[in-house]
């Protein structure tokens, strides 16, 4: 870092001709003319630097006037006590006395991620209140918490993606000091912290960065606002602004990783991309601190180059989201096929995603009306580098009414979703509350104080869903404080009978991931997928839905065919483990390779391991191996026994052969249910 960047009170502002530092608030404030350098940086004169540094170290308010206008907050402000339109406040993140000296970080592979929004995770909506829940998450078996953006935005509550001062931590959550306490508490609980950061656009209110310099590309829209200037004139400093922000989170706040929002929206034509520079930065911080750091990209491109190593032309990021997994599971369980879910009605969709990571790997996307994605190379990409989920903030919050799968699925369906997510070869992510079947919605909420912006946000939301056929009367008003309050978790639900039962299932499934590391260790092409059943013959072929979504992250809340809409069953074998899911409507007998398998966990206590001689009827003299089922038994109706004709799926193709090595055992799953088996070696 250049010397002038370390001089407190300095600012990069190549656009104005005159810059003053405003030190203090109200009548007692003073204006200090800054000295301009040739590189666009301004800094306090030498005679006042010590005095300025001392004032900012004690939390003094400050800002900048630009050609007489202002004062405006510091683009690198750490604190905005009175909001994003007010003066900044001095804060030194190095003053915190950390208590995590023994923390070395943790690997993403074999772990799990828990996505939460600080404002709605607890009734209080603060870092300190969230920290009180960390022991609960540790007992659940969570490896990382991923916080939705916490940078400063205008208003009191927001999803966080309208941030305008990326270095400042939202004051209502507890500010930067509260954030440091939270990270300390997470590490004490053995949990890593991943911070969601937005480097593709700035929010609509309080964005004064263009007054300072060319931070944005005029006319280059991302869908949420103007794009950041990553490759235009003077973009070196804009990229440095982003890279130093990433360093702040990874080093000053000791987070263990960053989730990079919507990297497909980066306008970056440089030979060395910003993503590569971010990967280099994370590796450098990891090497110097001795603490593992991971970067997780959210990308709509289905491009494994993001996570492939450099020696094969990749960007070497740690992981990326695979939305295709969510879509395939959602369709298989709910039957909803509107909007971007349409392609995932393909009976082979879920099997293809489990075996290959993406469904669209160069195939035609009817939603995009073009080919999309590219295949994952198992020589270059580990399955744990794909982060998957059955719920997240986008897939719930961008539905018209913010409804969760629990609005259409009962315990059995939610339990099957848990097996699909937590027992797969990928890194599973949970969305806060799903572990106990939360029924509280998570809706789109804002608190813009400007009447014009508030009305524009409200009207835009209604227009969006009116085009999809929704009655405007049922679409929540994002500006209504009750929309925010409704989105807060109701922790009493975790103590209800089904809540406790589902919570214990999640805990056991996360435990099984440690007991059976073959579920996620090894190569992606070690996954052998089997599909079968009566009727449609495979999951994912359920009926259509009511009004649905029209874009990535904008799914509607269609009706669909309901729980188990996919019918049939699916199973996948990994080293030392077999996972089986029956979508119903009745029982299914699924072949088990070899002999001596044991049930690690099942969603229904009636699940049994049987010799093949018993599949056509009741076993003679054999009671079967009882299932290990967390919590009390569940009731599943239906008596139709699914067919056992199975076919092998590899790289999305199938043949008529059953699983290789099958030696005479079957697992019988009643109705909508799932099981994880430990295979004999």
From TrEMBL:
UniProt organism field: Sinomonas halotolerans
Residue segments, region Disordered: 531-562, 611-639
The family this protein is said to belong to: Belongs to the glycosyl hydrolase 13 family.
Location of the Glycosyl hydrolase family 13 catalytic domain: 115-461
Biased composition (Low complexity): 611-626
GO MF annotation list: 4-alpha-D-(1->4)-alpha-D-glucanotrehalose trehalohydrolase activity
Protein name: Malto-oligosyltrehalose trehalohydrolase
Localization (cell): Cytoplasm
Predominant localisation class: cytoplasm
Catalytic activity: hydrolysis of (1->4)-alpha-D-glucosidic linkage in 4-alpha-D-[(1->4)-alpha-D-glucanosyl]n trehalose to yield trehalose and (1->4)-alpha-D-glucan
UniProt biased composition (Gly residues): 532-562
């Amino acid at each position: 870092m250049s010397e002038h960047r370390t001089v407190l009170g300095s600012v990069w502002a190549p656009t104005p001709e005159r810059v003053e530092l405003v030190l203090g608030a109200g009548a007692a404030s003073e204006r200090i003319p800054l000295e301009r350098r040739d590189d666009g940086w301004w800094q306090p004169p030498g005679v006042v630097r010590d005095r300025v540094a001392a004032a900012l170290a004690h939390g003094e308010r400050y800002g900048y006037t630009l050609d007489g206008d202002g004062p405006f907050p510091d683009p690198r402000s750490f604190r905005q006590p009175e909001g994003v339109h007010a003066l900044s406040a001095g804060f030194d993140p190095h003053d915190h006395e950390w208590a995590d000296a023994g923390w070395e970080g943790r690997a993403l592979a074999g772990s799990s991620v828990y996505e939460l929004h600080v404002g709605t995770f607890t009734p209080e909506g603060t870092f300190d209140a969230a920290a009180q829940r960390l022991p609960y998450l540790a007992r659940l078996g969570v490896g990382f918490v991923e916080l939705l953006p916490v940078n400063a935005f205008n208003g009191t509550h927001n999803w966080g993606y309208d941030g305008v001062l990326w270095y400042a931590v939202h004051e209502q959550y507890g500010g930067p000091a509260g954030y440091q306490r939270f990270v300390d508490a997470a590490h004490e609980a053995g949990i890593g912290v991943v911070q969601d950061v937005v480097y593709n656009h700035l929010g609509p209110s309080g964005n004064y960065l263009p007054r300072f310099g060319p931070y944005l590309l005029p006319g280059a829209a991302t869908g949420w606002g103007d794009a950041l200037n990553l490759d235009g004139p003077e973009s070196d400093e804009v990229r440095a602004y982003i890279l130093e922000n990433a360093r702040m989170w990874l080093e000053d706040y000791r987070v263990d990783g960053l989730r990079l929002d919507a990297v497909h929206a980066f306008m970056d034509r440089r030979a060395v991309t910003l993503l590569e520079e971010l990967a280099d930065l994370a590796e450098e911080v990891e090497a110097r601190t001795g603490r593992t750091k991971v970067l997780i990209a959210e990308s709509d491109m289905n491009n494994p180059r993001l996570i492939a190593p450099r020696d094969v032309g990749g960007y070497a990021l740690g992981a990326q989201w695979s939305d295709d997994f969510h879509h395939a599971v959602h369709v298989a369980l709910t039957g909803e096929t509107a909007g971007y879910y349409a392609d995932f009605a393909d009976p082979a969709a879920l099997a293809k995603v489990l075996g290959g990571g993406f469904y669209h790997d160069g195939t035609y996307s009817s939603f995009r009306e073009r080919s999309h994605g590219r295949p994952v190379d198992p020589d270059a990409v580990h399955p744990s580098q794909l982060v998957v989920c059955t719920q997240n903030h986008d897939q719930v919050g961008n539905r018209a009414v913010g409804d969760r799968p629990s609005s259409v699925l009962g315990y059995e369906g939610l339990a099957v979703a848990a097996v699909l997510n937590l027992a797969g070869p990928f890194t599973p992510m949970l969305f806060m509350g799903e572990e106990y079947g939360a029924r509280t919605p998570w809706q789109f909420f804002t608190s813009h104080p400007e009447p014009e912006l508030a009305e524009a946000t409200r009207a835009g939301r209604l227009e969006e869903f009116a085009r999809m056929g929704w009655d405007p009367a049922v679409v929540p008003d994002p500006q209504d404080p009750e929309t925010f309050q409704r989105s807060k978790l109701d922790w009493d639900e975790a103590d209800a009978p089904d809540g406790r039962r589902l919570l214990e299932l999640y805990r056991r499934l996360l435990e099984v991931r440690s007991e059976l590391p073959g579920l996620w260790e090894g190569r992606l092409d070690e996954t052998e997928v089997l599909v079968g059943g009566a009727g449609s013959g495979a999951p994912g072929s359920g009926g259509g839905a009511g009004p649905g979504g029209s874009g990535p992250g904008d799914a509607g809340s269609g009706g669909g065919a309901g729980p188990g809409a996919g019918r049939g069953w699916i199973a996948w074998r990994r080293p030392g483990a077999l996972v089986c899911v029956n979508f119903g409507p009745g029982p299914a007998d699924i072949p088990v390779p070899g002999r001596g398998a044991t049930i690690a966990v099942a969603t229904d206590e009636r699940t049994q391991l049987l010799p093949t001689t018993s599949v056509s009827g009741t076993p003679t003299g054999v009671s079967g191996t009882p299932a290990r089922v967390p919590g009390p038994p569940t009731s599943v109706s239906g008596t139709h026994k699914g067919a056992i004709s199975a076919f092998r799926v590899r790289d999305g193709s199938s043949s008529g052969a059953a699983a290789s090595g099958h030696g005479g055992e079957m697992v019988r799953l009643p109705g909508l249910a799932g099981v994880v088996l430990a295979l004999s070696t």
